[in-house]
From TrEMBL:
WD repeats: 332-373, 376-417, 418-459, 556-585
Domain Autophagy-related protein: from-to ranges: 17-206
Protein name, per record: Autophagy-related protein 16-2
UniProt entry keywords in alphabetical sequence: Coiled coil, Repeat, WD repeat
PANTHER family, sorted: AUTOPHAGY PROTEIN 16-LIKE, PROTEIN ATG16L2
Length: 619
C-alpha cells in the first residue's frame, strides 16, 4: 500500500500540472479575443444598421412619383417624408460609403486577427508538443531519480557495513598495538636482564682471569729471579733482535743457555739490523727488559690483567721484507664504472675490488695474472670501501646507499645489511675481535656493529664528515673532513685524543704492530704518526704527487718499510719510511686518477685501481 501511494502521488501532481497549464492557456487565449469579440459585435451592429438603411433607401414601385409631375413651385410638405430629398440621399450615400469603409476596415482587421489566431494556434500546438516531450522527459527523469535513490540507499548500506568493519579493524589494531607494546617492554626487560647477567658473568670471568694472571706473573717473576742469578754468554747474531715475537723468544732461549763467564763476553759488541740503531752489548739485564717489554706489549694489545677474554682472529703472518714493485704484470678492465676500493685477503693470493657499478669482483693471483673467482651482487649503491675479515671468509663493503653490507665468500648474494646511517657510508672495517665491525659515514657518525645480530652496538657522533676508519685492539681511529684524526676507546664513551693535520683526511692505514699510522690528506702529503708519542713523525711529499679525490687511499707495506699512494695523473709513488725519501714512482697503464692501492701481506704484489675502470697488478 505504501508503494502504491508513493506511485500515485507523482501521478496526481502531473495531472494537476496539466490542469493548471490548460487554465493558463484559456486565460491567454481569452485575453487575445477580448478586443476582437467587441469589435466584431460592433461590426455586426453596424452591418445590421446598414442593412436597415439600405432597405429604407429602396422605394416600392407604387410609392415613387416621377419628378416631372412636380413643379418647381411645389414644395415638400410634411406629407413628403416617404421620398427623401437628394440632399438626404447624398448624406445617406456618404454615410453608406463611410459604413462600407468601416466595414472593409473591420473585415481587414478580422482577417488580421484570424491570421494572428492561426499563428497562436500553431504556437499553441507547438507548445503542447513541447509540453508532451517535457512531460515524457519528466517521467524519464523521475524513473532515473528513483533508480539513483535506490543506488544511494544501496551505497549507504555498503558504507555502513564498511564503516562497521573499519571500526572493528581499528579496534583490533589497537589491541594488537597494545600487545606489541607489551611485548616490546618484555623484550627490553629481558634484554636488560640478559645484559646484567652478561655483566655479572664478565665480572666473574675478569676476577678469575685476574687471579690466573697474577699467578702467572708470580711464576714469571720467580723464573726471572732464578735466571738473574745465572751468567749468560751470547754470541754475535745480528738477526736475533727484531720487532716480532720470534726474536723475543730466541732471546729467552739464549737466556736459558749454559752459563759462561760474563766477564769474558763483556767486551763483545753486536749490531742491530735497523739502520738507525747503534751497537750495544747484550746482558742479562737486557734480556729481562725484553721479557718485560713482551709483557707490556701484550698489555698494549689488549691482554691486560683485568681484561675479559675475547674471541679474536688468529694473527696474520707478518711480512719480513716487502719487495718494491717495478712493472705492471696484468691490466684488467672488467668493472662497468670507476673502481673505488681494493683489498687483499689474508692469504695474499686473493683480493676484492669494488666500484660504482655496485659489484664486488673477487680475484685470484695465479702466475702473475688476475683470474676472476666470483662476483658479489646485491649492493644497494656504489661501493666506497671493501675489507676482508682476518680469516678471509667474509667481505664487508661500504656503499652510497646509507648502509654497509656483508658477504660470505662463496655466496653471491649479501648475507647481512648494516643499516642505520642517514648518509653515504664511506668506510667499513672489521675489528680484530670476531663478529664486530666499524663504519664511518658522511652523516657525521661512526658506528660499531655486532655482526652476529646485525645490530649497532654503539654510535659515536662527530662534528665532521668521516672519510676513513681503522681499528686496533681497543681503539678506533677515524679521519675527518675537518683536517683532524680522532681516537676512540672501544671501552669508553669519549674521544681520547685528537691529532690535527693539514688538509682533509682521505685515508688511514695502521701498521701491523699498531704502533704507526699512515694518513693521506688533500694537502697532497702523507704523514706517519707514531702512536707511542702521538706525534707526526714524518711527512712525505713528491713533485707531481696530488690526491685525485676525497677518497684516495694510501697504505703501508706489510713490513712498514714503505708508504704507497696513487696520484691524480695515474702514477704510483712509493716512499721509504726509514729514510723519508721517495723510493720509486711507477707509471704505465693508468691514465686517470688512482683511487686506491693495496699491498699483499706477503709483500710480493701491489694492486691499484683508478677512475677509468682499470685494475692493475704490479710485481
Amino acid at each position: 500500500m505504501e508503494g502504491s501511494g508513493a506511485i500515485g502521488a507523482p501521478a496526481a501532481r502531473w495531472k494537476r500540472h496539466i490542469v493548471r497549464q490548460l487554465r493558463q492557456r484559456d486565460r491567454t487565449q481569452k485575453a487575445l479575443f477580448l478586443e476582437l469579440v467587441p469589435a466584431y459585435n460592433r461590426l455586426l451592429e453596424k452591418a445590421e444598421l446598414l442593412a436597415r438603411f439600405s432597405e429604407k433607401l429602396q422605394p416600392e414601385p407604387n410609392d415613387v412619383t416621377p419628378a416631372t409631375h412636380q413643379g418647381p413651385w411645389e414644395e415638400s410638405g410634411p406629407d413628403s417624408d416617404q421620398v427623401p430629398s437628394p440632399a438626404t440621399l447624398r448624406k445617406w450615400e456618404e454615410e453608406e460609403e463611410g459604413l462600407r469603409l468601416v466595414c472593409g476596415e473591420m473585415a481587414y482587421r478580422v482577417v488580421e486577427k484570424s491570421a494572428a489566431l492561426g499563428a497562436l494556434e500553431a504556437e499553441l500546438e507547438q507548445r503542447r508538443g513541447r509540453l508532451a516531450a517535457l512531460e515524457a522527459r519528466v517521467e524519464q527523469l523521475q524513473e532515473e531519480r528513483a533508480q539513483q535513490a535506490q543506488r544511494v540507499h544501496t551505497r549507504r548500506a555498503r558504507n555502513a557495513a564498511l564503516r562497521a568493519a573499519y571500526e572493528a579493524l581499528r579496534a583490533h589494531a589497537g589491541l594488537q598495538e597494545a600487545a606489541l607494546r607489551r611485548l616490546e617492554e618484555e623484550a627490553r626487560d629481558l634484554l636488560e636482564r640478559l645484559v646484567q647477567r652478561k655483566a655479572r658473568a664478565a665480572a666473574e670471568r675478569n676476577l678469575r682471569n685476574e687471579r690466573h694472571e697474577r699467578a702467572k706473573q708470580a711464576r714469571v717473576s720467580q723464573e726471572l729471579k732464578k735466571a738473574a742469578k745465572r751468567t749468560v754468554s751470547i754470541s754475535e747474531r745480528p738477526d736475533i733482535l727484531g720487532n716480532g715475537i720470534k726474536e723475543q723468544a730466541q732471546t729467552l732461549a739464549l737466556a736459558a743457555a749454559e752459563p759462561v763467564s760474563l766477564e769474558s763476553e763483556a767486551g763483545e759488541k753486536w749490531k742491530r739490523p735497523f739502520r738507525s740503531a747503534s751497537a750495544t752489548s747484550l746482558t742479562l739485564s737486557h734480556c729481562v727488559d725484553v721479557v718485560k717489554g713482551l709483557l707490556d706489549f701484550k698489555k698494549r694489545r689488549g691482554h691486560s690483567v683485568g681484561g675479559a677474554p675475547e674471541q679474536r682472529y688468529q694473527c696474520i703472518p707478518v711480512c719480513v721484507a716487502a719487495r718494491l714493485p717495478t712493472c705492471a704484470q696484468d691490466v684488467l678492465d672488467t668493472h662497468l664504472s670507476e673502481v673505488n676500493a681494493v683489498c687483499f685477503g689474508p692469504n695474499s693470493s686473493f683480493l676484492a675490488t669494488g666500484g660504482a657499478d655496485r659489484l664486488i669482483h673477487l680475484w685470484n693471483v695465479v702466475g702473475g695474472r688476475l683470474e676472476a673467482n666470483q662476483t658479489l651482487e646485491g649492493a644497494g649503491g656504489s661501493i666506497t670501501s671493501v675489507d676482508f675479515d682476518p680469516s678471509g671468509s667474509q667481505v664487508l663493503a661500504a656503499t652510497y646507499n646509507q648502509a654497509a653490507q656483508l658477504w660470505k665468500v662463496g655466496e653471491a648474494q649479501s648475507k647481512e645489511t648494516l643499516s642505520g646511517h642517514t648518509d653515504k657510508v664511506t668506510a667499513a672495517k672489521f675489528k680484530l675481535t670476531r663478529h664486530q665491525a666499524v663504519t664511518g659515514s658522511r652523516d657525521r657518525t661512526v658506528k660499531e656493529w655486532d655482526l652476529g645480530r646485525a645490530y649497532c652496538s654503539r654510535t659515536i657522533n662527530v662534528l665532521s664528515y668521516c672519510n676513513d676508519v681503522v681499528c686496533g685492539d681497543h681503539v678506533i681511529i677515524s679521519g675527518h673532513n675537518d683536517q683532524k684524526i680522532r681516537f676512540w676507546d672501544s671501552r669508553g664513551p669519549r674521544c681520547i685524543q685528537v691529532i690535527p693535520v693539514q688538509g682533509r683526511v682521505t685515508s688511514l692505514s695502521l701498521s701491523h704492530d699498531q704502533l704507526h699510522l699512515l694518513s693521506c690528506s688533500r694537502d697532497n702529503t702523507l704523514k706517519v704518526i707514531d702512536l707511542r708519542v702521538s706525534n707526526i713523525r714524518q711527512v712525505f711529499r713528491a713533485d707531481g704527487f696530488k690526491c685525485g679525490s676525497d677518497w684516495t687511499k694510501a697504505v703501508f707495506s706489510p713490513d712498514r718499510s714503505y708508504a704507497l699512494a696513487g696520484s691524480w695523473d695515474g702514477a704510483l709513488y712509493i716512499w721509504d719510511v726509514n729514510t723519508g725519501e721517495l723510493a720509486s714512482s711507477l707509471r704505465g697503464p693508468h691514465c686517470a686518477a688512482v683511487n686506491a692501492v693495496a699491498w699483499c701481506y706477503s709483500g710480493s704484489h701491489v694492486v691499484s685501481v683508478d677512475q677509468a675502470r682499470k685494475v692493475v697488478l704490479w710485481h
